[in-house]
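Possible race condition, two jobs.
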Amino acid sequence: MAIDTEALKSSVTPGGKCGGIVWKIMNLTGEISPLRGGEKSAEAVVPIEPALTSGLGKGRIFKQGAVVLPIVTITMKAVNHITQQMYLPGAEEWGVVGPTGTGADVYRNDRSGVRQEWLSVCRKERALTVGLMDAIADPVNLTAAMRQVVSNAGAAGVDGMTVKQLESWYSSNWKRLSEDLKAGRYHLRPLREVQLPKPNGGQRVLGIPTVKDRLVQQAISQVLTIRYDNSFSDHSYGFRPKRSAHGALHKASGYVAQGKRWVVDIDLEKFFDMVNHDRLMWLLGTRIGDRTLLRLIGRFLKAGMLKGGLAEQRVKGTPQGSPLSPLLSNIVLDELDKVLEQRGHSFVRYADDLIILVGSKEAAKRVLSSTTRLIEERLKLKVNAQKSKIRKPYEVNFLGHSFLHEGKLGLSKQSEARFKAKLKQITKRNRGISLERLVKELNPILRGWLGYFRNARMKGRLGALAGWLNRKIRCFRLKQCKRAISIARFLNSLGVRWNRCWLTAGSSKGWYRLSNTPATNEGMDLNWIRSIGLYDLQANYLLTLKETAQYDKRTLGGVRGQQG
C-alpha cells in the first residue's frame, strides 16, 4: 500500500494523534496495511525493515522510500475493548464473539441429545473460522501476546531463553514466526517439568513451555477467548475476563441465602492431567474450521515433558503452566456446565472446583450420583470419591471460604491453618535476618491475604491470629538480643522498669515463653508493633467491614451484600 508521508505528517498533532487515531509506539518498525471491511479498528500494522526516520512529537512517523513506520497499535477512540484485550485487526470478518447459549439452548429437554439449532450454529461458526490462523499470526496480535508473556514473567523453558530476552528475539524474528504459523511450520520444544508441593500433600507437576511457545499459546488464547468466552456458562468464573473468585463466592453465598442448605462438593482428581486429548480436539473441531490451528493445538497437547534429559510423550492432560491450558480446561468443562444448566441445578464452578447447592440431603445424594456418572462416562474424567462429599455450608472449603448463616462468608479451617503455617515459616527465630527485613517480608503477604479474604466473617478468629503473630514477632526480637543483659537493656529502652526487665531477662524459660511475660507485653505492646511498621490485620479488616456494610443485619449474600 502506498503511503502519503506528507499527508500523514500534516495530520499528526504534537500529542501523537493522527486524524482522531491514537498511536502507541513500539520498538519495531512497519508499514500500514489496508483496512479490512467493516472494521471499527484502524489499519493493522505489517512490520518491515528499518530505514531513516524523523520524529514528530510523541507519535513518530517514519519516512519511507519505501518509508518505514514504527510498528504501532492504532485504535479508534470509540473502539470497544472486548474481554479487556486489544481489538484484533480483521476480527469482524470472522465474528467478534462466538455463539451464545445456555444448557437449554444446547440440549433437548428430554435429554435425548443436542438440539439441531445448536449444531447448525456450530456449522456456521466452523465456516467463519476457516482462516482463524491469519488472525492469530497477525503482527498486532503477536505483539500483544509478546507483551503479555513479558508482563507475566515466569521461568525459562528447556532452551534457557528468559522473558527478558524474548522482546529482542521477537523484534528480529516476528516475520518468520508469523509466516511459520500460517504455513504450519512452527516447531515446538518439550516442556520443562517443575514439581511444586500441594497444600494438602503430594506434588503438583507443572510443564513449563519455552517463552517462544508461551508467546504462540498466548496469541492463540487471545483470539479463542474472544470466540469462546461469550458462550461459557454464567456459573463459570475461573480464568475468564472480568470474572474472579469473589464473583463465584458471591453467587454461591446467594444460593445459600435462598435456602440451599446442602452442598455437593465435587473434586476432580488430577483434572489437568486427566483431560482426554481426543475428546478435547473433537470439541474444538465442532466450532473451529481452521485445520492448521487445530493441528498446532494438538501438538501443544502432546508436547513431551523433559525428565532427566529424556522427553516423555504425553497421551492425556493439558500441561499446567502454559497460557493456553486455562482456556482449554474451560472448554472441556463447559459441557458439564451446560448439562447442569439444562437440569436446572444451582451450581458454581471455578476452574475444576465445583459445588452444587440443593435443598435436601436426599436431593444431594441423587445429584452427586448423577453428576459423577456424567463426569466419568461422558467427559472421561475422574471424580475423587474420597474428597467429593455432601456437606453443610459451614463445612465447605470453596476457594478458601465456608458459608455461614444467611449466606455470609466465613474463613475455612483449612485456609486459616495454611496461612498460619506460612507465617510460622517466615517468623522462624533462626533465620538470621533483621526485624526490618522480617516486617518487609510479612507486610505484602498480610495485605494480600486480607485483600482476598476481606469479605469473610472472621473478626474473632482474626483477633486471635493477629495476637499469635504479634507474639511470634516479640519472640523473634527477643532472640536477637541473645544475652540477658541485652534483653534487660532492650526492654528498659521501651520504658519498662529495671526490676521487671531483669525478671524476664534472668528467667530460664524458653524464648516463646519469654515473649508472653508481663515485661515483654508492657514494652512490646501494640504501639510498639505499629511503630515497627507491621501491617495491622485487625484494624484494616474492621475498616473493610464498615466499607462493605457487613455490620448491617439486613446484609445478604456476604460479598458487598445487597440491602434488603
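Job #2 (started ~2 s after job #1):
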Amino acid sequence: MSGKSGPSKRSRQNTNENPYATDVHTYIAEKEEEIKDLQKANEDLKETLKHTKQDLNKSQIENEKLSTYVKELIEIQKTFTEQLHSVQETLCTILTNQNKNENTLESIKNTTSKQAEEVRTQLRQQQQQQQQQQQQVKQQLQKQSNEWVQVVRKTNKTDVDLQRSTKSTSTTSKTDKKTESKTKIERRILITRSSSTAARASPLAIRNAVNSALTSNGAPRNATVIAANYNEKGTIVLTTREDCDAKVVLKYKQQIYEQLRKIDSVINKPQVQKNWAKIIVHHVSTEQYNDTTESINELHHEIENMNPSVKLVTSPRWLTSPKRREGKTRSSIVIAISDQELTKKIINRGLWIDGRRTKTERFTGVKLTDQCSKCYSFGHYAVRCTEQVRCRICAASHETRLHVCTTCKTTAKECPHIKTVCVNCKQNHQANDARCEMIQTLRRSRTGGSKASGAAEEDQDELML
C-alpha cells in the first residue's frame, strides 16, 4: 500500500509548493488574449477612423455645395421678392385703372343711354315724317291716277269720234295711211335699280306714274305706257303702245325719272333696250380673276387691250356661281358685244386672254321656265347640263328614247304597264306636262304682278345689268 501512494503524494506536494505558478500562467494567457483583442480593436478603430475621415471629407464637400446652393437660393429669393414687389405695384396700378375705367364706363353708359333715347326720338320723328310723306305721295298718285283715268276716257272718246269720222269719210279719203305697229324691242324701255333687295312698287303704280309724267309734260297722245313689270334681275320693264316707239317716251326720261323716284328711290334713269350679242369665253383662269370689282375690271382691260377690235358694252361676268367654280382652275365668262359682225369673228377665231387663245361660242339666254331635255330640270339647256340623265315618262336614270315596255313593246311612250312619274313633283304625269305644279309655280313667279298692269310680256330682256 505504501508503494502505490508514493507518486500522488509527491504531486500533491509540488502543487502545494507552487500555488502561484498556475495563476501567473493563467493571468499571462488572459493578458495575451486581451492584447490580441486590443490589437484587433486597434486595427478596427484605424479602419473606422479611415472611413470616418473619408466620410468627413465627403461631408465637407457636400457642405460646401450646400452652402453654394443656399447662397443661390438666397439670391433667387431676393430676385423673387423684388419681382413680387413689382407685380404688387402693377396690380395696384391695374386696380386703380380698373376703378377709373369703371367710373368712365358708367359715365359712358349714362351718356349712351341719353344718346340712344335721343336717337330713338329722332327715328320716331323721321318715321312719322316719312309716313306723312308717303301718305302725301299716295294721295298725289291717287289724284294723278284719277286724272290719268279721265285723260284715258277723253282719249278713248276722241278715238271713237275719230273712228266715226274716219268711217264717214272712208269712201272719200282712201289715201289715209294705217298706223304702223312697232316691234317689241322698239317699244321696250328698261329702268335698272341700284339695289335688288329694296322694296318694289306695284307695277300699276309705276305705269300710272310714268303716264302722269308724260301727260303733265305735254307728251304726244300716243306716248303712253301700257304695261310695267319686273324681270328676273329686278329691272323694271316698260312697254309702250303698239304705235309708240320707246324713243318718243324717252324724250321725257328726266321727268319720268323724277316722278318714279317718289315711289322707288333706288331706280336709275330709263334707257332703251339694246340688242346685244353675248358670247361665252371658255378656259379663263379662276386663279387670276375672281368676283371682285377690281378683278373683273382687270379682266375687262385684258380683253380689250389684247384684242384691239373688241369693245365690251359692259363688264364681263362669270357664267357659273362661285360655289360651282370651287376647286376649278379655269371656268367660263360671258361678254356682251354690240357689233354683230364682230361677234361672228370672235365666235370663229376666239379671244386672246393671258397669252393664250380661248375657245368661244354664242351665249343662249335661258329663263327660269326653260326646261332641260336631258334631266328635265329648269333654268338651263341640255347642251350645258351636268346633271344625271332622266326619263321624261318614268323619271328613271335613262334617256326617254330608251323607255321600253316589255309587255306591250312600246318605246318612248306612255302605257298602262309602267307608272308615269314626274321627275320634279313626283306626280303621275310626264315631266313636261303643263299640269306640273313646278311648271305652274315657275310661270306664276315669272309673270309676278304683271296681271295688274294689264299686259305683261312673256319674253324678258337679257341685258347684262
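Confidence is low (pLDDT under 50) at residues 1-7, 11-15, 165-178, 449-465.
Logs attached separately.
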